[in-house]
Amino acid sequence: MTRLVLFIFVLFNTFLLLSTFAYSANTQGKHVMLRTLDKVTAITEDYRVAVGDELRYGSLLISVKNCQKTPPEEIPETYAFIQIDDLKLGSQREDGKQERVFSGWMLSSSPAISALDHSVYDVWVLACN
Question: How many structural domains does the chain have?
Fold first, then answer.
């Protein structure tokens, strides 16, 4: 009898280990909530930017390319792919073109992992709706 119980136990655990686990894909968002900080005036502002749109903030041009968030059953996280260009006035660049200062994924839970390195402005992701 104990051999039968042991066999059923091993068979059941093998079935559990080999079965596929429930997996949910990230949810695509339509809007990104961004928070900006002007380090000179110490003013923060929140903006809602649609995916595919651009936001002009000071000398920065912020382009939101993609926004994703994890499903509710996983650890909450928001990812946004953002490109930020600096339109410097009176800089050494005489061609009048913008300079790309950031291009990559920003995480809402850890903004320091992938952050904008700018002397006047800070930008970080709050949410994806």
Answer: 1
